[in-house]
């Protein structure tokens, strides 16, 4: 039952943060039954608050979320995850009509997340000082690798129809533009050695294949705005805006893609039983991409530069947003804009300072601090608060600033530690951090692992170890220095770069176009030789060399890690026709940029050069 408990905890926490009106009881019933199907999930307006940008969600939706988990044969059968129809429309804060209730809730959610982040950081530091960090590691890296491999082996993932769109009529009111990301589908499946779809039952070698279809980024200048439409029309427009094999949206100007690619992954769980041993890598990843198109015209470049500048101005204007008129032009509305300027200065500078230094306001603020300290202390002692007290606690959190909230909570936790230590009934650590307040929920990686361990029975533990092929207290595997444990290859069949302009008739005119065919890349790493860690330690070693003796320096040179580099670059040939267009009958200027080869010498030759 451990996996059901942990999955229920994770889904309730993270879905609850982003989805409105989530029925936790229905979700829990589905999880325990192994069949979760959620439809038409509406995203919260504050779903993008963590980005810390002056934007907000106008409407967001997840059409379908399906989890099919075979609990009775978890380690041998496939777990199917299906996500479909993710649509999101985002606009600048200034473009959305100000709503005091929603804004208050958004600020409250932001406070809660910041408090959680600060307390998680402090808790991690306290655990480290208290010596609890080593105990948390618990399971070895080998166990983690085998568990991840088992999860990858059994998971089947399907993501279809994603359209995330940013619309802006604030940056340039006369010419609104839209920027978006679309995806037709992403499929991850298990296969056999011949790359035919099947249910993976081999624990030695795992074969996975990934299909990516029509991933694209667009930037439409002089665009219509979907956020002003009714929800049904908005969703219809978003759906039609996704490029696919059968459909190419009209009026969309892509700056990246659409991209179609496939990837293959081979995981070798036991390289020691290869014939001969250690000849097949533990991980081999192969990525093939048909065409990568990157292009931009003058109008798109202009809008991107204007957006970057506008984001800075909108961020500075967030405190004054409540006073800002819902207008897009200055002409004919001078009285409204002058009123906004005067009100903003009076409310944020003059009246705010007077209010903060008013004696009655100081007493009221101090009273809120004391009330919050009492209620949070009760909550921290695992005592259930009355509904009116819980509401009062939330009201205090809304009225107090973030700094004072954090200070008060730390005072309560410090006092709890002191009292628990004096009583000696339990460790001060468990007392102070044993409970969470109603206002912030903990979801750190460490706590999920702790809950996982706590819920797991010895029988479940042994079954899991057997299923993933792990032996507790076994000696860690040692690989030969020459063993290549990870290989990755990349093949790009065509790369297209294009810069264009727009003439007086609004027709696109190509200024520069570059085509590059068949780009290949290969990467190999050897974990035993730490071949990929040279860059990380080079700077620290350089400092140490300054203090070495000549003998120590010679030893370091002999034992230093080397990079075996072999690059052969076939440079392009440039053709510049006399008329600007090549037909085969005009004079041309031909430029051959030659060939570039970079390769490494052996250890002995480099050693003599250094000496």
From TrEMBL:
Q: What is this protein called?
A: Vacuolar protein sorting-associated protein 13-like
Is Transport included in the keywords of this UniProt record? yes
| Superkingdom of the source species | Eukaryota
Q: Which family does it belong to?
A: Belongs to the VPS13 family.
InterPro entries in the record:
VPS13, VPS13_N
Looking at the record, the residues that make up the Chorein N-terminal domain are: 2-534
Organism ancestry: Eukaryota, Metazoa, Ecdysozoa, Arthropoda, Hexapoda
**Gene symbol of the encoding locus:** LOC114329103
BP GO terms, sorted: protein retention in Golgi apparatus; protein targeting to vacuole
* Keywords recorded for this protein, A-Z: Transport
